[in-house]
Amino acid sequence: MSTELSDLLHNEYDEVLNSCEFSDIEIMIGEDPDTKVYKAHSLILKIRSPYFRTALTDDSERTDDNNVIKLQKSDITVEVFDILIKYMYSSFIDLYRNDIKTNVALLIAADELCLNGLCNFIEEHLLSDEILLKQNFILIQSVASKYHQFNKLVQFCEVNFELDPSLIFMAEDFTEIKQEILLDVIEKNNHAESPIEIWDRLFEWCVAQSNDELSLDVTKWTQNETSIFRSIVQPFLPHQC
């Protein structure tokens, strides 16, 4: 298919989606206050997504006089679904326009909607930039530990963490690591970071967990703020950092 014809079809399907003409389904996406109702065509969604093929077979979902199907999905954000529904209509997606968090959210949502080809495409896109993955290692490791079906991301995390456990501390999103994981890493002490470097990162992590109650300038802390820090850091003190 020529590029011109492909672009033409892409634009025409975009127009079908945007016009809402002949739509027979309304999907409420997101959680308050960020929600949006999408008017779509059940035939297209059934063809493109096995998830919708199953979800839309139940006629009990039809709730209004116009025989329009009503669905609700609060676990996918408006930003992500906006990209996915355009993909389902046009087969077009530009991952380079998104940051890594958006693309990871797209991967998870595409998996939920059983868009297997898109999942593979997004996973390959993420793996094409190892530097970015290491900078966001906490995010990637969290996804890999929860979604084992993303085999290549799981392998990336396992191999790279085994080679260099210090990736945890060097990640730009280090402060987003869960307490139990950080405790485990520090307890095992199989990283290359010095005790001072570990303490500096642990301090940053504790401040980030305080919900803006603590600043990085300890000289300005009150007695209450010192107590808050002590309660957050307490589980780590028995371990040699």
Automatic annotation (TrEMBL):
This is 13101_t:CDS:1. Residues 23-97 form the BTB domain. Transmembrane segments: none annotated. GO terms for cellular component: cytoplasm. Pfam families: BTB. Gene3D superfamilies: Potassium Channel Kv1.1, Chain A. SMART domains: BTB.
